[in-house]
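Transposase
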Amino acid sequence: MFLAIDRVSKFVYVEFSNSPSRAEGSAFLRGVVKAFPYQIRRVPADNGVAFTRDASTKYDMMQRPFDRVCDENGIEHRLPKPYHPWTDGQADCMNRTVKEATAKTLHYDTAHLLRAYVPAFIAAYDLARHLKALKWKMPYQAICSA
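Tokens:
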């Protein structure tokens, strides 16, 4: 599961993938760019294989599809320092929220059922949950007024 959260509006975008590959990571970023109604300036991503490159392919853009999508859209790609997990706290907190509302609460016989429920939870979060950090607005209201 790939998850993006806007730091200002708290709007969440989620996509599922079969494997966290570089191609899946770049396809996810293209979906994020389409989902958000404004220009994205920075993407702080973790050091997962979908967002980084091998040390041996340091200068080969063909091996860095996520960076290529960032360049195409004028986005600065930021990676945290190794062993500094506190730099991606909002995404981790939202991952925990999704897990608590789905996998830890209900039992799913198949992964297909989980994949069907998570987008419904995210839609309810974005469209119906009033957040104190947004002065009791919903994330969708905050992103529309931005």
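The mean pLDDT is 85.
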